[in-house]
Amino acid sequence: MTTSDNSPIKFALIETPSATSKSKIMACIFCGSTHALNTVEHIVPESLGNKSYALEKGKIYADCNNGFSKFEDIAQSKSILGYERARLAVMTKKGKPGRGKTGHLEFIGSEDFKKNYIRAAGLK
Q1: What whole-number distance in Å separates Cα of residue 109 and Cα of residue 63?
Q2: What is the dihedral of CA 47, 48, 51, 57, to 10 degrees?
Q3: pTM here?
Q4: CB within 8 A of 111, min separation 6: which ones?
Q5: Rounded to whole angstroms, how far apart are CA atoms 85 and 87?
Q6: Element (H or E) spanning 24, and its range?
Q7: Are residues 122 and 115 in contact, defined by beta-carbon separation less than 8 angstroms?
Q8: 29, 76, 81, 96: which is deepest, by most CB within 10 A?
Q9: Model confidence pLDDT, tens digit, residues 38-91
Q10: How far apart are CA 79 and CA 39, in angstroms?
């Protein structure tokens, strides 16, 4: 895994004393924070159909994870990724077909989750 400038992402171990012993706590791989590391970060977004590839809890700060979620929501609903999600019949977390809008074109995947079947509106 690399950052936007292609440098490797580094994991930081930070020593923190506990009531009974010293323990090592993993810091967020994005910002280095050790607070609120209780979210699961999917390496490939769930919204693209991933159910398997995720980092375990304790690797990502909640605010970093939420930031990625906001970006994914925009990318999924207002870009070609949303169209592909609908075309490939990827189910949303709420069990509905994928949908989105790009410009004037709106699209929704098959309600029977058949691949390559979409409804479109806004065609001229």
Answers
A1: 31
A2: -60
A3: 0.58
A4: 97
A5: 6
A6: strand 22-26
A7: no
A8: 76
A9: 888 888 887 778 888 888 888 888 888 888 888 888 887 788 888 888 899 988
A10: 26
